[in-house]
Write a structure and sequence with these properties.
CATH superfamily of the largest domain: Endonuclease Chain A
Distance between the termini: 34 Å
Helix content: 40-55%
Number of helices: 19
Oligomer: single chain
Number of domains: 3
Structural class: alpha/beta
Strand content: 15-25%
Shape: globular
Number of strands: 19
Radius of gyration: 22 Å
CATH architecture of the largest domain: 2-Layer Sandwich
CATH topology of the largest domain: Endonuclease, Chain A
CATH class of the largest domain: Alpha Beta
């Protein structure tokens, strides 16, 4: 049995070893470095275990090499699409589109059409109708897919499509879709001819722990039909009642249906994940360069732990910096890094009307408390905060000056910034932006405003708790 002195000695050595590792990590935010150091220092032994499990944003050298190889193979397809389908971008939004291009190498495409779908039920009905009309291929990737009404109906549509000779490929996240993977429905799809694959599988948890982080997840939501029609947004393949967390229901999501060249970019994002698990000829993912009369400009953006560090928060900052009059931000999880909260406050201080809409009751109490630690600073800068009371506001959308929209799977939190594979689309079109703003304003009508007077009523203990959790934001 070690003595107290020996225990202290061992803890000191562990702290020193992890502190050295933290100091050797280039590019790590000082706030993240300090947060992890405090965890390791103040939680004896267990802090080191937590860092070992969750401290490194790394899938391993093999995964990074595989990602680079796949990106190189797909690059000629993206270049061919760009040559055929370049889009017009306004001077105001040009810097944001230029930054988006730097992430994946995709170019702004013209000749797109986009429709904002009415609600979760309408979005799923539209997707199933498109699957039922498919002639060549259906490619789908979802973080969460449950064997509930929505998940089952979607699976049945894929089984019907495979039965008439359509090539169907379905990928789900190994953690988020675990209920489906373990269900008879998953096996039924495979037996019917639907190709299935698991992103970041957890079939060998120990191996996952030793090689990377168990909480690095594929959070994307992509559906591409015949290479011509794309669906994306915040909705998983699950009922709005979301029975695994029914007390927060309904989940309120936002989805768009695209036609045009930007769908080819979504197809390539799907391919970049699919090819990591299933070797498939590139011809299966060749993008279609068919322009639509609407001629909307759009670009797809994909981010993840194998992309350039900091790409996601920098993308948000590029968009926030383009706002001149109004900025509507809807996100369920708000734990921003310093650059994003600074950008939001700076926009409000220079006279932009910045409205931030979050859920009143969040399925993550830790994130909810950390989010509220930023309220005072943002309100004092002149921003508006609204808390949605009719369920869990799960929509992820940003609209800029009634001109542009950024919509997809990315939350405004550290998980989306550092850990998850995400996909979004940046669209410049006044009519579509007005439709999204109308939806965001409808959310606001079902929300309660939060004021500085409200915050003044918070107890000292509550404020301390929220600020303590925000300090640990980089490790949440």
């Amino acid at each position: 049995m070690p003595t107290a002195f020996q225990t202290i000695e061992l803890h000191t050595l562990i702290v020193a070893a992890f502190a050295l590792r933290l100091l050797l990590r280039d590019g790590m935010l000082p706030s993240s470095r300090m947060a992890w150091f405090m965890v390791i220092l103040t939680v004896p032994f267990a802090g080191g275990v937590l860092y070992f499990l969750f401290g490194e944003v790394d899938l391993g050298q093999r995964a990074a090499r595989r990602h680079r190889e796949i990106a190189a193979r797909l690059a000629p397809l993206a270049d061919a699409l760009a040559d055929a389908c370049s889009g017009r971008v306004s001077p105001q939004m040009a810097p944001a589109f230029a930054y988006a291009r730097s992430i994946n190498g995709f170019c702004p495409t013209g000749g797109n059409d986009a429709v904002l779908l009415d609600d979760a039920k309408a979005a799923r009905a539209a997707l199933i109708a498109d699957i039922d009309a498919a002639r060549e291929s259906v490619h789908m990737l979802f973080y969460i897919w449950l064997p509930d009404r929505t998940g089952t109906a979607t699976a049945r549509a894929l089984i019907r499509a495979a039965g008439r000779g359509v090539k169907c490929r379905v990928m789900v996240d190994g953690l988020g879709a675990r209920p489906l993977i373990r269900s008879p429905l998953w096996r039924e799809m495979a037996e019917a001819g639907v190709e299935t694959a698991i992103a970041l599988p957890l079939d060998t948890p120990l191996r996952t722990l030793l090689r990377s982080r168990i909480d690095l997840r594929n959070h994307r939501k992509i559906a591409v039909i015949d290479g011509r029609i794309g669906h994306t947004g915040s909705q998983n393949c699950a009922d709005p009642e979301f029975r695994i967390k029914a007390k927060y229901a309904p989940w309120v999501d936002i989805m768009m249906r695209f036609e045009g060249p930007v769908v080819g970019q979504l197809q390539l994002l799907f391919a970049s994940d699919w090819l990591k698990e299933v070797e498939t000829p590139l011809a299966a993912f060749r993008p279609v360069a068919a322009r639509r009369p609407a001629d909307i400009t759009a670009i797809a953006v994909g981010d993840g732990p194998t992309e350039r560090p900091g790409a996601s928060p920098q993308m948000f900052c590029a968009l926030i910096g383009r706002a001149e009059r109004e900025l509507y931000v809807t996100t369920p999880y708000f734990v921003p890094d310093p650059t994003v909260i600074d950008a939001l406050c700076a926009a409000a201080l220079r006279g932009v009307k910045v409205s931030l809409n979050l859920p009143k009751n969040n399925d993550s109490w830790v994130v909810a408390a950390a989010s509220r630690s930023y309220y005072r600073r943002f309100l004092e800068a002149g921003g508006e905060i609204w808390e949605y009371r009719q369920g869990l506001l799960h929509s992820k959308a940003m609209s800029i000056d009634g001109r542009a929209v950024f919509i997809g799977s990315s939350n405004m939190d550290m998980r989306s910034f550092d850990l998850n594979y995400e996909n979004d689309v940046l669209v410049e079109d006044a009519a579509l932006a007005r439709a999204v703003i109308a939806r965001q304003q409808a959310y606001l009508r079902d929300s309660d405003p939060v004021t500085l007077e409200d915050i003044a009523q918070w107890s000292l203990a509550r404020r301390m708790w929220q600020n303590a959790l925000a300090t640990l934001g980089p490790v949440l």
